[in-house]
Amino acid sequence: MTAVSSEAGTVDLEVRRFVPAPPQQVFRAWTDPAALKRWWGPAGVQCVAAEIDLQPGGRYRIANALPSGDILWIHGVFERVDPPTLLVYSWHTGEADQSFAEDTHMPAEQVSVRFTPSGDGTDLTIEHKRIPSETMRDDHQSGWAGCLDGLIDFLAA
């Protein structure tokens, strides 16, 4: 994890991980709703719904069932889609199904995911930008680590 200062009042996070699968396979696992539901989420969190319109301007949303029983929705819009090397998308969260609604009272967080070939696998780099606080950045870092553990386990199966 690398913490970096960002725009006024926000922080950035960078997470890197080697994934022992080719970029095409990792990209597909990241962007296919059925596959995403099988690995997304840190320990104790289950992805119960995923919708992806994989094109610039297309929307996505992911429903995470938390250990408390609450559902946390992650949703946003794809800004760049360059298979199988890059995804850039906005990131909003909420506890209710927001039907792809954008939260306009604050700037969206932004996530960039780079899939770089490396030997027999993929160097995965996640840049999560415009996070509102250091506490939320630390939560995201833990969440991304758990997601990537799940991704690696899914691809190994």
Give your account of this protein's structure.
It is a single chain. This protein is of the alpha+beta class. It has one domain: 2-Layer Sandwich (Alpha-D-Glucose-1,6-Bisphosphate, Chain A, domain 4). The chain has helices at residues 23-31, 33-39, 134-156, and strands at residues 2-5, 11-19, 46-52, 59-65, 71-82, 86-94, 109-118, 121-131. The chain has an 8-stranded antiparallel beta sheet with strand order 1-2-8-7-6-5-4-3. It is globular, with a radius of gyration of 15 Å.
- Helix amount: 10-25%
Number of domains: 1
Q: Give me the strand/helix succession.
A: EEHHEEEEEEH
SS element count, helices:
3
- The CA-CA distance between the termini, in Å, is 26 Å
Mean pLDDT across every amino acid position: 91
What is the CATH third-level topology name?
Alpha-D-Glucose-1,6-Bisphosphate, Chain A, domain 4
**CATH class category:** Alpha Beta
In percent terms, what proportion of residues is strand?
35-45%
Form type:
globular
Task: Report the uncertain regions.
Answer: none
Q: If classified by CATH, what would the architecture be?
A: 2-Layer Sandwich
